[in-house]
Amino acid sequence: MDQTLSSVPSNQSEALLTIRDSVMMIPPDECIERASQCTTTPVNESSLCASVNSSALDQFLKVAAPNATGPLNLCNFTVLQFACLPTLSQLNSQQVADVLACKQPSNVGKETWKLFFTKTSTNLDDALLKFSNMTPSPSNVSLSDVLDVLVEVRVDRFSPQRLRDPVFIRSWFQGRLKPFLPSVSQRVLSCLSNKNLTCESYRTITEAFVNAPLRDGQDVCFPPQPNATQRQDLIYKEFVKAFLSRNDTDDPRCLRNSTNSTQWINRNFGPFVQSAPLTDLGELNRNFTAVDVLPLLSLRQLVEFSVTPGALKDPPSVINVMELVKDCQLSAFFDDLSQKVKDVRLTQDVNAALIKQIFDRANLSNLNVTNQEVLVWFQNRLKPLLANLSESVVSPFFTILSTRDCNITQSALRLLNLESSIPTNTKNAIYNSILQSFRGPQPLRCYRNNSFITFLNESLFGFGPLPNLTTFLSLIPQPRKSELVNSVSPSELGTYLRQLEVMNNDSQICVIFNNFVRTPEFLDTEDVPDNLKSAILPCVWPLALTSDNQTEIDLWFNRRLRLYLKFLNKDILGSKDTLNASCLSYRKMVNVLGNNFTFNGSQISSTDVYTTIKTYLKADTDPKCYKPSDATLNSTAWFVNHIGIFITFLSLDDLYSFGSERTIKTFTVNPENLKLFNQKTLPKNVLSRYTELVFLQNPSFSLFE
């Protein structure tokens, strides 16, 4: 009959096909030619019905009025009772549909359904049509088994002509079988994919699966339920891919009349394309171009495309993909991308474009986004994109960090520090941004009362050295200068100052030592290069000149400044600090410069020292630094103590400027002073005046004693 039908004109074939359809309901399963994937369910009616009593049902159907056999009454009986009736010819198509609509126990098996459908075959097609138009009931069970059996008893018996008739196929798959398709099984899908379908018939069946409520596409922000995802993936694998992979159809891959990738996908896949790996699509169609169908792809496929070498070749290609990713899908997209992009070498500008998408859309500066979520973004989703980081993303990166707590900031910077491939210009930008962050609206907001230098070292994360002195000081708010300078130990300060390029402005170093309370300890313990000593001396010189404690003064000149004094210059020597020195400090200075100082190669001369001496000692009445009532200042060896070896520069005018004759003459007879004047070459007028003063003080003084 099938051979005859193939040569019958189309206007005469429908009647013959209808006859053929009826005839094909008669043969047993073993007489039906099937593909190996189309298995059958064996039925042993004797065994199945051995313990079933259908007499009550039989009696009910014989005597009940037609209007009494509606679904409310029919549902009082089981499918097995119907199947085990001697004949079901008395059931009309509506009653068969009503039985299908009854709530059935979960243990109704395929064998029962097959026996039931076999006995109702006369009215089955019409019953299925009526059932498909009913409001579906969520209480129906075993629909997958029902569909399996319906494919056995009806679809497997379709003629080759029916299988190639899209209208006929539509009447079944988008009509009679529609209620059962959401529960389609792997067996049915595999069986259908091996039928002798045309591409048009295949598309009709695919459309039927699309119309069944499987899962929404990528436009929905909420992820699909796992069972819906599994069902759609199953349809793709067992039906769509299986059929399109065949080489024995009239139009393998259904490529005919498809002018581009979009048309081919829309016609042959529909939403099931979202279950296909892009590699599958390329294998099925060697002219397939993924970039042409991006709007049709799922989130997973957009990630797969993104990690395909060469797919994301520039920022515009990134934008093309990311425009299809909704904000609510952003985290899921980058969760997947971060796992797959590790082995893909993206260019710097592509990385930057992806990071920009995160910074622009993930609202990481919004405090409604928790710190924990921000941490997930940095540590998981952003991490693979940090290699070869572009300088352009540094500023927005720090804008986000400025709104986050310090733990987030440190975690993010630690992550950056682990990337060895970050270019130098980007590292410099990160370094400068870190320094700038210390100044911000909340200066040093992450400082926790530890050493300021330690804080800087830890906060810079190796992106650059400690800043030069000018920058270092600019990071400290003025009200906190003393606090932060004194948070540093002398050894830390010494280590910092010894670093190359730290000393960019000598004058700034005095800001440190004007606030540093442990300067004596620093000078005692820290050895610094000569250029630093030269810069430090003007800062600490005043500290050596203010004390009235001889022990402390000795420590300053004998130990702390011992290696610094060679850098004395005229400015320091003639400074207000020197001219306002305490008497004991001044006296120590004169002693050290007169006995322990080498002027050769120095920036000062003996004359310079004497110039300071005569300025310091100038007095209108009482000589400076002489107080008979003060045990520390009552020595009459005044010239020795306050001028020393520099007495050789003394002029007569200077002598007169040191104080009144009444007091000065008391110094002249002091043995130490006499010895000093005896040993040094002085101007004659100075010696004459000094001798005169001696005799004024002691007329009986003997020059020969």
Biggest sheet statistics = none
- How many H/I helical runs? 42
Shape: rod-shaped
Please give the number of β-strands: 0
Give a structural overview.
With 705 residues, this protein is mostly helical. Among the domains are: 2-246, no CATH class; 423-527, no CATH class. It is built from 42 helices and no strands. It is rod-shaped. 31% of the residues are buried. The model is unreliable at 11-21 and 214-219 (pLDDT under 50).
Walk me through the topology:
Elements: H1 2-5, H2 10-23, H3 45-49, H4 55-63, H5 71-74, H6 79-83, H7 93-101, H8 110-119, H9 121-132, H10 143-153, H11 160-163, H12 166-176, H13 186-193, H14 199-211, H15 226-244, H16 261-268, H17 278-284, H18 299-306, H19 315-322, H20 330-340, H21 348-361, H22 371-382, H23 394-401, H24 406-417, H25 424-439, H26 452-460, H27 469-474, H28 481-485, H29 490-498, H30 509-515, H31 519-525, H32 530-544, H33 550-560, H34 570-573, H35 576-579, H36 583-595, H37 606-617, H38 638-642, H39 652-657, H40 661-668, H41 671-679, H42 684-697
Brief overview, please?
With 705 residues, the protein is mainly alpha-helical. It has 42 helices and no strands.
Q: What attributes does this structure have?
A:
705 residues, mainly alpha, 42 helices, 55% helix, rod-shaped
